[in-house]
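Worked problem 6 (solution included).
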Amino acid sequence: SMRWVGEGELQGDAMKNLMKYMPITVFIILMILLMLFNSWKKLWLILLCLPFVFIGITPALLFTGTPFTFMAIIGLMGLMGMMVKNSIVLVDEINRQQTEEGREPYHAVVEATVSRVRPVLMASLTTIVGMIPLLGDPMYGSLALTIMGGLTAGTVITLMLLPLFYTAIFHIR
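Solution. The predicted structure is:
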């Protein structure tokens, strides 16, 4: 048989297929973070920074008038991975400063943040610049804009809020 299928139905099917694997993916990410840091506090600290990427995504999409399409959702999922990576780099360096170098917690947070500014900024900047050619593409433009806006705000948030959250969660004065 044949029938007419609209864009909405195709997008709904694609979302259904995509979301089918989301719970197992999130579970695997959580288990990897838990095995990496062996701490629920650090796991939640890393996940706490994820919602803040919308501070960059929302204005970028609104300012350009770009819709939040299926490809933007794919970009958001990739962006979440990039933010987790940036957070892991910073939290791991704080741990290293405390354990291997024996710094007291406050100085470890400050030194780790300062020493990880360049690697986090360079990783984010190369990704943002790499998305520029996709901006004009009708299919991938929303994906590029989502990643660029979210990663810009997310990088600033990782470098500023994550150390503050770390000091608050671990009661560092």
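Discussion: The mean pLDDT is 91.
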